[in-house]
UniProtKB/TrEMBL annotation, chain A:
Transmembrane segments: none annotated. InterPro entries: ATP5MG_metazoa (IPR016702), ATP_synth_F0_gsu_mt (IPR006808). It comes from the Eukaryota. It is found in: Mitochondrion membrane. It holds the Pfam family ATP-synt_G. Belongs to the ATPase g subunit family. GO terms for molecular function: proton transmembrane transporter activity. One of its GO terms (biological process) is proton motive force-driven ATP synthesis. GO terms for cellular component: mitochondrial membrane; proton-transporting ATP synthase complex. It comes from Moschus moschiferus (Siberian musk deer). PANTHER family: ATP SYNTHASE SUBUNIT. This is ATP synthase F(0) complex subunit g, mitochondrial. The lineage of its organism: Eukaryota, Metazoa, Chordata, Craniata, Vertebrata. Subunit g, of the mitochondrial membrane ATP synthase complex (F(1)F(0) ATP synthase or Complex V) that produces ATP from ADP in the presence of a proton gradient across the membrane which is generated by electron transport complexes of the respiratory chain. ATP synthase complex consist of a soluble F(1) head domain - the catalytic core - and a membrane F(1) domain - the membrane proton channel. These two domains are linked by a central stalk rotating inside the F(1) region and a stationary peripheral stalk. The keyword Cell membrane does not apply.
UniProtKB/TrEMBL annotation, chain B:
Belongs to the ATPase e subunit family. One of its GO terms (biological process) is proton motive force-driven ATP synthesis. It comes from the Eukaryota. F-type ATPases have 2 components, CF(1) - the catalytic core - and CF(0) - the membrane proton channel. CF(1) and CF(0) have multiple subunits. Subunit e, of the mitochondrial membrane ATP synthase complex (F(1)F(0) ATP synthase or Complex V) that produces ATP from ADP in the presence of a proton gradient across the membrane which is generated by electron transport complexes of the respiratory chain. ATP synthase complex consist of a soluble F(1) head domain - the catalytic core - and a membrane F(1) domain - the membrane proton channel. These two domains are linked by a central stalk rotating inside the F(1) region and a stationary peripheral stalk. This is ATP synthase F(0) complex subunit e, mitochondrial. The chain crosses the membrane at residues 6-27. InterPro entries: ATP_synth_F0_esu_mt. It comes from Moschus moschiferus. Keywords: Acetylation, ATP synthesis, CF(0), Hydrogen ion transport, Ion transport, Membrane, Mitochondrion, Mitochondrion inner membrane, Transmembrane, Transmembrane helix, Transport.
Amino acid sequence: MAQFVRNLTEKALALVNTAVAYSKPRLATFWYYAKVELVPPTPAEIPTAIQSLKKIINGAKTSSFKQLTVKEALLNGLVATEVWMWFYIGEIIGKHGIIGYDV
Amino acid sequence: MVSPVQVSLLIKLASYSALFLSMAYGARRYNYLKPWAEEERRIANWKKPKRIASSFWNSKVLDSLLQTSS
């Protein structure tokens, strides 16, 4: 019995070590990109964001979006879909469940 | 490695605000649905037939009542 427990702890430790060794470089790459791409905007940068929004609304008013190529339009649609998916992820966190409300 | 992209500020602002607003929305809706579901369960259980009546007819009380009359 004691032998079994000792073997189990050794194997578990070895597993944990391999997991850490595997994930460290990948976490490093993730952090390298996240530091630039996923940083939330500081309050000072919000006016710039609102300027971009006004530009988009102006584009919609003057129908200049018809000058976009199909490729650009598809990319914009993809970006909009990603923002919408962030909404669903937040909802999953808020309701503490992945599918459906666990009432 | 590919160098990281400077994501537009509008996209970042929109995604983070969508994240936090939806967390609040999810929590709010969960708190709203919870008592409603409990009420539904209560009503569903109330509609089940009560077993008291059948257990009375099978009990020895009824036998003893019938024997006194015969």
